[in-house]
Every structure is written in C-alpha cells, then in structure tokens.
C-alpha cells in the first residue's frame, strides 16, 4: 500500500509533526481538523503503522513516526523545491520561442510587427525564426524542433491546432513568359488541366490538394509531373523553362521569383490563407503569449483597414 502514498498526505504528516496539534495543523493546511485526521489515518494505513499517538489535547510522534519524519523530511523538501522551480520556469517567459516558416511568405505582411510586439512586451524572450522545408513540412513541429509554424492552410491534423489566420491571398498561375497562357489577363482552373504541375510534396494532403487540385470542377485530371522539385527555387526554374505551370499566390514571386515568369490571376479558385499551427497539447506559456500578441496585431490591422475603407 505504500506505493499509493500521496504528496499531500506527506505534507499533512510533516505539518502535524511540526505543530503536534490538529487544529493548528489544519489551519496551516487550509482544511478542517477532521480532514487532517482522516488523511493521517490514510497515511498510517498505507505505511502499516501508527505515526502519531493522539489524546484529546495533544499529539506525539511514535517511534515509527520519528523515524519516518527523519527519513521523509529531506527528500520531501527536495522534491518540493524541484516542483517549485519547475512551476516557476513554466510561468516565466524567459528563453526563446522557435517559430518555423513553411516558405518565407507564409508569415504574411504583419509577421515582423507581431514579432516586434511580442519582444517589446516580453523582452526576456526572443523569437528564433527558421525555415521549414517542403520535403518534411510537419516533421519539425511534431518532433519538437520548433514550437509553432506559419504555414499555408488548410491543415487538418488531429495532433495539431490551427490558430490565427495571418494572411489571405488570391491564387495566381505562374507560367513562362513565352507560355501559351502568358498573354491571358486571367485563367480558369480548367485551363490548368492542359499542362503539367509539380508540387514539391503531396503532404499534408488537405493543403496540397487545395492549392494544386487533382481534378478540375469539370472532372478533368490535373497532371502531376513525374519530375518533382525539392525547393521553391527548383519550381521557378521548371516554370521559367516552360516544363510546368504552378498555381501559387502573388507573394511567391516576391520571395522566390526569377526572370522569365508571368503570374496570371486564377478566376475560379478561392483565396489561400496562411496561419499559425502548433502541437495540440502544448501548454508552453511563450506560445500562449505569442498567439495573444498575434491576435492583437491582426485586430489592430483590421481596424486600420476598416477606417481607411470608411474614409475612402
């Protein structure tokens, strides 16, 4: 039965051993004297002997109680110190928060303001930015190599939480300057089915199939090239050479663009969102405060946009 002893029962015993008075011990513990007596009896039952002798007016340690007190007090104090230090470390934001970017443009145009606001509010914590590679888009997050990630959406994974939306962008089609579609003012998703595409990865499926569908609304298959690029720069190289077309967003050109590519609006594909994603059961306080700062900056940006629209 000793293996079922609880930390609270040890605390009750040590407080009683210090006070040798049930009422005073109960007052220190914030419980009733009867509860103190009940917990002591439970502890004695588990260790197999009487620890305190009681009278109507006093209590005294038995020989077993004196031995138990001498042996349990030091490790109890040590364990309590460990728990207090762990709790304090949890509450503190001191350290760093690791933010991964699945493509630099996934953070949206407010990311710099979000990071600066967080570090202004919490100067003891810094943001460490790193690139997440398309070959293993969710691996670093799941392995704990980063704390959260800015990525294109949708992400629908049972172990991950999707947080604030950072940006929304319309879809465009990247084609070579001399491509048959290059002179068009806009294209349809049906037009894409006439040419091969080459996504870097097929996972997460819900994201890739949203950005680069496998079929058009009319049911036509959108051909996947057998040659798969490994990086966005390899994608642009294939596009510029006319080997593939690439559905993407306008900011792709800002971060990964190269000469020889034209970007044409896709008229019948919905806008693509990007947002923050983190592990579902992560209770990191730095993560919580970063999400709070993100929501505040995005709300301020929305208010400013509404005021500009009203003024216009």
Automatic annotation (TrEMBL):
Per the record, the domain of life is: Bacteria
User: Domain HTH lysR-type: where?
Assistant: 5-62
Assigned GO CC terms:
protein-DNA complex
Q: Which GO terms describe its molecular function?
A: DNA binding; DNA-binding transcription factor activity
* Gene3D superfamilies given in the database record: Periplasmic binding protein-like II, Winged helix-like DNA-binding domain superfamily/Winged helix DNA-binding domain
Keywords assigned by UniProt, alphabetized: DNA-binding, Transcription, Transcription regulation
User: Entry's PROSITE patterns?
Assistant: HTH_LYSR
- Which family is this sequence assigned to? Belongs to the LysR transcriptional regulatory family.
Q: What is this protein called?
A: LysR family transcriptional regulator
Which organism does this sequence originate in? Kribbella pittospori
């Amino acid at each position: 039965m000793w293996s079922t002893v609880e930390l609270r029962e040890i605390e009750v015993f040590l407080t009683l051993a210090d006070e040798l008075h049930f009422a005073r011990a109960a007052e220190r513990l914030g419980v009733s004297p009867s509860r103190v007596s009940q917990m002591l009896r439970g502890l004695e039952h588990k260790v197999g002997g009487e620890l305190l002798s009681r009278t109507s007016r006093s209590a005294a340690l038995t020989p077993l109680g004196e031995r138990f007190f001498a042996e349990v007090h030091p490790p109890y104090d040590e364990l309590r110190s460990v728990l207090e230090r762990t709790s304090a470390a949890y509450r503190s934001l001191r350290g760093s928060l690791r933010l991964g970017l699945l493509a630099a443009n996934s953070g949206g145009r407010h990311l710099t303001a979000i990071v600066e606001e967080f570090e202004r509010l919490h100067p003891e914590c810094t943001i460490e930015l790193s690139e997440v590679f398309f070959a293993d888009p969710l691996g670093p997050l799941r392995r704990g190599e980063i704390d959260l990630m800015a990525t294109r959406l949708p992400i629908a994974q049972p172990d991950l939480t999707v947080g604030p939306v950072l940006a929304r962008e319309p879809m465009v089609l990247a084609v070579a300057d001399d491509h048959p579609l290059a002179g068009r003012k806009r294209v349809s998703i049906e037009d894409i089915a006439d040419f091969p595409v080459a996504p870097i990865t097929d996972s997460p499926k819900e994201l890739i199939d949203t950005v680069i569908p496998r079929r058009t609304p009319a049911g036509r298959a959108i051909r996947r090239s057998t040659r798969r690029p490994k990086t966005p720069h390899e994608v642009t190289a294939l596009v510029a050479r006319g080997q593939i077309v690439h559905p993407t967003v306008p900011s792709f050109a800002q971060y990964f663009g190269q000469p020889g590519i034209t970007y044409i609006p896709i008229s019948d594909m919905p806008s693509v969102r990007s947002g923050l994603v983190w592990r579902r059961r992560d209770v990191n306080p730095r993560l919580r405060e970063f999400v709070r700062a993100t929501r505040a900056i995005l709300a301020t940006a929305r208010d400013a946009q509404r005021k500009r629209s009203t003024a216009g």
